[in-house]
Amino acid sequence: MAHITRRSFIQNASLAGMGLFINTKAFSQDFPTVRVPLEKRNFSSAAIETTIQRMKTRIKDPELAWLFENCFPNTLDTTVIFKMKNGRPDTFVITGDIHAMWLRDSTAQVTPYLSLMKDDERLKQLIAGVINRQTECILIDPYANAFNDGAGKSEWMSDHTDMKPELHERKWELDSLCYTVRLAYNYWKITQDTSVFDAQWLKAAQTIIATCREQQRFKGVGKYRFGRTTSWSTDTVPGNGYGNVTKPNGLIHSIFRPSDDATLYPFLIPSNLFAVVSFRQMGEISELVYKDLAFAKECRDFANEVEEAIKKHAIIKHPEFGKIYAMEVDGFGNCLLQDDANVPNLMALPYLGAVKADDKIYKNTRKFVLSDSNPYFFRGKAAEGVGSPHTLVNQIWHLSLIMRAMTSSDDKEIVQQLRFLKNTHANTGFMHESFDKDDAAKFTRKWFAWANTLFGEMILKVEKERPHLLNSLL
């Protein structure tokens, strides 16, 4: 998770930094235009614009329709840099208020557009460009989470790790590699286009497997280390840069969480569950596209190995909720019982295809996550939802509200999340990173494209599966 306003709060923030303006006095009457003007948008898609117009007729609540119009195209409007490079599409995707490309965020930002590629060849090319750029990034350094657009400068060049000019940050986050597989796999499944699966992609896939094997640490701690000179304990790593001590058991170490905060116990379970899905997807691609049966078997065997380790080491018997997934374990029997709003997390497991929504252990885990037994579940005057140590206490994340709706089968629960989202954008027309549980005007990250675009993905999911929920005022 990219962070520029770490633990800072913005009161009634101007959106001028992303070319957006809002008249808060007129807000409640006529919902002023807050999208970037057409001539200043980074990329335009006819399919996206058609979807926006259709949804404005489908969503009866005018404020919710306005939010969709603002949020859904935000990634294309403000964060993508598309070009052709060596005859192939190339797309660099910034997170919003940080001019760097996170592997995780870039996948999440364009995923809501995948279903529209069949109606827009340029949009398809743009997403192929993201895959191609991610492949290039992995081959530069599979341990890095964020990249510059070519060689450049980063505020983190002084970190105590093997930094390169192309890197913005080098935090080893297992989910970063999983997200690149998720995008390529779903692109292929929707389009049947195999052009992204060249020799470089296969080399990147092999690098992913080799990196994850190294981070099982059966043969030592491996070559990755990280340290940062900082007063924030979660921004650096204990254990001389290798993380807290673990007992190797088949799980894969992730030294940082999706929040970019250091793990307490390096076996981060949501990311390991995500890895199981990704390895199987790589196996399928290897078999059907590359005809490489040996590598396909290697991927699938690795998935099975991690899955068995999860069953053995990551399921904890809670005194109130029964069997649940821990967020982190160390192999010695220690575990961290909480959730974090950043995805992958325990809440999002069905969204990622890691478990079924009706799985008993997941349902128990979900009840735990949405209770006061989870130290980062907050209730306040503005809303209730999951936060993150990344923003300290009493800060609810819009990602958590969106993901709660996307993983729910309960109409009342989904409607409540829609109401929370509608009432906590602080008169900006956009989603944010986090907001104070009692006062949504105190928020972090005024320009956070992942949260904006995921909001659009959630609204489209509701329309497809529960259209009646959009037929009334909230």
Task: Walk me through this protein's architecture.
The protein is of the alpha+beta class and 474 residues long. The protein has one domain: Glycosyltransferase. The protein is 39% helix and 11% strand. The chain has 14 helices and 16 strands. It has helices at 27-30, 46-58, 62-71, 74-78, 103-110, 121-140, 174-191, 199-214, 269-290, 293-313, 360-369, 398-406, 411-423, 449-465, and strands at residues 10-11, 80-85, 88-93, 101-102, 146-147, 167-169, 267-268, 315-318, 322-325, 328-329, 335-336, 377-379, 384-386, 395-397, 434-436, 439-444. The strands form six sheets. It has a four-stranded antiparallel beta sheet with strand order 1-16-15-14. Strands 4-5-6 form a three-stranded antiparallel beta sheet. The protein has a three-stranded antiparallel beta sheet with strand order 7-10-11. Strand 12 (377-379) and strand 13 form a beta hairpin. Helix 6 packs antiparallel against helix 7 (174-191), helix 12 (398-406) runs antiparallel to helix 13 and helix 12 (398-406) packs parallel to helix 14 (449-465). The protein is globular. The two termini are 31 Å apart. The model is unreliable at 3-28 (pLDDT under 50).
